[in-house]
Amino acid sequence: MGRISKMEKSISYLILCLVGVLLFVPFVYMLSIAFASDATTVKAAFTFIPLEFTFNNITRVFTDYHMGTYLKNSIIITLWTVVGSVISASFVSYGFARLKAKGSGILFAVLLSTMMIPGEVTMVPQFIIFKELGWINTFLPLIVPSFFAGAFNVFLIRQFVMAIPKSLDEAAMIDGMGYFGIYSKIILPMTYPILSAIAIFSFSYNWGNFMGPLIYINDPEKTPLALGVQLISTAAGGQVPPWNMVMVASLFLTLPMLIVYIFGQRFIYEANISGGSAGIK
């Protein structure tokens, strides 16, 4: 391949800038609505460029709409699911990558085949199981499944681990280290980039998870932020929804995911580069 000309590079950057501006437009409009006054909200006289800066909306969403409770619940659920996703997936993938047992290939194929099952198919059976366990209206249906290693996460980490030379394992065994010691002291530190990427994916999904809390949570005191935004939009009781409060809540829902991705994109990039030869794309 020849070198990219300056003209081609300029066109590429121009297209990227236009796409970036297009994607940034809804965020600017959200800011404009979030800081609008109640009078503007009732009239729905919103402007694209923010003309009002009612910063009191930020405090009001906490005092009048239980934002503190929603944030606390989201933090609890998200932290536990991230921990569960990373630990369980790394442990299971290490077993598939390093512990060769009869039928392990078939088990791995069965695990991957679960990725083809739509979530709508298992939604009702899962609800019945959690209901029989008495977990409805608790955080457990949202947290416990993450400790059972998602198939996609296991696949990514397994491919990453298979790219690590087995000579490191053999040298550790000669020194008297067992499988768990190899996992915790050799494999785990070397898979830090892919584990960080999985943690970011898990955080983004669970922080914005709406369907799970909608199904399993009935108590407003246990409602996470994603479902709380919907509750705020219906707080007016059939009148004009308080769109400025809804957008303030949406800011709290959006900003953490943006911040996590901005500071964590380096790990996603490292995971793709380091695991590219192993099939991570």
Automatic annotation (TrEMBL):
<keyword id="KW-0813">Transport</keyword>
<feature type="transmembrane region" description="Helical">
    <location>
        <begin position="75"/>
        <end position="94"/>
    </location>
</feature>
<feature type="transmembrane region" description="Helical">
    <location>
        <begin position="243"/>
        <end position="264"/>
    </location>
</feature>
<comment type="similarity">
    <text>Belongs to the binding-protein-dependent transport system permease family.</text>
</comment>
<dbReference type="InterPro" id="IPR000515">
    <property type="entry name" value="MetI-like"/>
</dbReference>
<keyword id="KW-1003">Cell membrane</keyword>
<feature type="transmembrane region" description="Helical">
    <location>
        <begin position="106"/>
        <end position="129"/>
    </location>
</feature>
<dbReference type="Pfam" id="PF00528">
    <property type="entry name" value="BPD_transp_1"/>
</dbReference>
<keyword id="KW-0472">Membrane</keyword>
<keyword id="KW-1133">Transmembrane helix</keyword>
<protein>
    <submittedName>
        <fullName>ABC transporter permease</fullName>
    </submittedName>
</protein>
<dbReference type="GO" id="GO:0055085">
    <property type="term" value="P:transmembrane transport"/>
</dbReference>
<feature type="transmembrane region" description="Helical">
    <location>
        <begin position="186"/>
        <end position="205"/>
    </location>
</feature>
<feature type="domain" description="ABC transmembrane type-1">
    <location>
        <begin position="71"/>
        <end position="264"/>
    </location>
</feature>
<feature type="transmembrane region" description="Helical">
    <location>
        <begin position="12"/>
        <end position="36"/>
    </location>
</feature>
<keyword id="KW-0812">Transmembrane</keyword>
<feature type="transmembrane region" description="Helical">
    <location>
        <begin position="135"/>
        <end position="157"/>
    </location>
</feature>
<dbReference type="InterPro" id="IPR035906">
    <property type="entry name" value="MetI-like_sf"/>
</dbReference>
<dbReference type="GO" id="GO:0005886">
    <property type="term" value="C:plasma membrane"/>
</dbReference>
